[in-house]
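SUBJECT: A protein chain and its fold
Encoding: whole-number codes for local backbone shapes
Chain under study, with its fold:
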Amino acid sequence: MYISGTSKKSELRLDFNAGNAEFLPDHCSAPARGIAQLLSHLKEHGFTGVQGHDAADCAVHQLAAVAGGRVNEPGAIKQEVATWQEQGYQASTLHVGWGMESDALIDDLVGEIIETSAATQFPLFIETHRATITQDMWRTVEMVKRHPNIRFNGDFSHWYTGQEMVYGDWDAKVAFIAPVLERVGYFHGRVGNAGQIQLDITQEPNGEFLAHYKELWTKAMSGFLRNAPTGSLLPFAVEHLWPAINYGPYQLINGERVEIGDRWQQALFMADMARECFEAAQHDVL
């Protein structure tokens, strides 16, 4: 299932992942440091949802709250959903398994996630992520064949970099993952290239990799507009992370990692990209 909105038409919503505010360096232009301090500034910049922060705190600032979790074994997701609902979260993205599961175990996990989402009316989006059951494009497409009601959190940097999508026939690969693109109900906005999981996108605004991400996002947004009930919301959560976890680019100065780029400006840049893609998707489905 998808996230329900309050409008009669389906809309894009810009979310801000809490990780995008973690350990911001002094040179970053963000109006505050840390997600708790940044909440009061988000709406003026177009963000109306937050992932990964206390739901009650988000509610104070009239921001929707989305959770994130991990599911490794059957039987775990029902209690997680009950907790998230009690805390006031609207939906959750999920890392599922470690990528070493049998198809039988994958079917148990995915089936239970789909059933729990439907029974509780709580949207659950399985993330396309390394070191999970969706780390492989082929296996994920096969998963869709067996579970057509699956819904995804599209974080395509993990495939673009991890499976080096530009090595070979790009168009053929995009066509192959069409069943996944048609089932995206949430996005993590991160941009990498064939060898780096995350880039300072403001430094290469016309790079080929940006065109590729725009294509993936636009096709997924078109799939959402075709398949989601009218009035659904499609959140796009900007998620550029900090260098200490080996995502963000950095340089070593006196033995310390010094972040390259301004993650706040990158978040605003990526939000504009998402709006551009959604507008293109709307034209695509006319």
Notes: The mean pLDDT is 96. Residues 3-284 form a domain with the TIM Barrel fold (CATH 3.20.20.150). Residues 47 and 135 are 29 Å apart (CA to CA). The chain has one domain: 3-284.
